[in-house]
Amino acid sequence: MLFGYVRVSTKTQNPNLQIDALLKEGISEKNIYRDVSSGAKAERHDLDLMISRLREGDTVIVWKLDRIARSISHLLKLVEQFEKLGVKFRSINDPFVDTTSAHGKFVITLFGAVAQLERDIIIERTTAGLKSARRRGIQLGRKKGLGKEAKQKAILAASYYRQNNLPVTDIMKLAGIKSKPTLYKYLAIEGRRNCKECGIVFWDKNQNLESAYCIQHTSNDNWISREKNRIKV
């Protein structure tokens, strides 16, 4: 059985040119599936519906390749899916893509080789770039610390929190923070600590978050040493 697929990017575009071309190929109008979707979008309702109805021996025909495939890699995935179903595929305006012929299958194989080469080159360039950056001592990944806007939110949130008269949800609204984990992350950066011994909340940026002790549970020598370090900073 013959199936046709038509796609236009917007509702204002006319699909009749594609439909007429498919009808001339002998496809019944009830077997022509249509989507209104931009080429970049992966979700296509009628394409998925058509594929679900394909059976071994069927043939899918499109007016042009860009009507069904978003990229070469997407085209290859579709062709692979059709082959597993025992379905042929061809494009009216791209006669070199025709899995009903040996020549068309060869072209698809070339497309696959080109796509693999492109992936390998990207990986190679990325790896070389990372190695070069490391040799130059360039720090990779996200920069440590907070950005300017996030820092302002952290300071504001800490100020409200230290007043001790507002619920956490109100502090989040006032500071423009969307989640509790983010709020407590900001508060930790601003110096909020829980004593490892008694659990009491206190403020000290110089103590490690995982091993913080309040004054009552810190030895005098350690406390004096930390205070000296804080004065130096």
UniProtKB/TrEMBL annotation:
Keywords: DNA integration, DNA recombination, DNA-binding
Keyword Cytoplasm among UniProt keywords: no
Gene Ontology BP, a term: DNA integration
Domain Resolvase/invertase-type recombinase catalytic: 1-137
Record-linked PROSITE patterns: RECOMBINASES_1, RECOMBINASES_2, RECOMBINASES_3
CDD domains listed in its UniProt record: SR_ResInv
One MF annotation (Gene Ontology) recorded for this entry: DNA binding
A Pfam match: Resolvase
Keyword DNA-binding: yes
PANTHER family: DNA-INVERTASE FROM LAMBDOID PROPHAGE, SERINE RECOMBINASE PINE-RELATED
UniProt record similarity statement: Belongs to the site-specific recombinase resolvase family.
Name the record gives this protein: Resolvase/invertase-type recombinase catalytic domain-containing protein
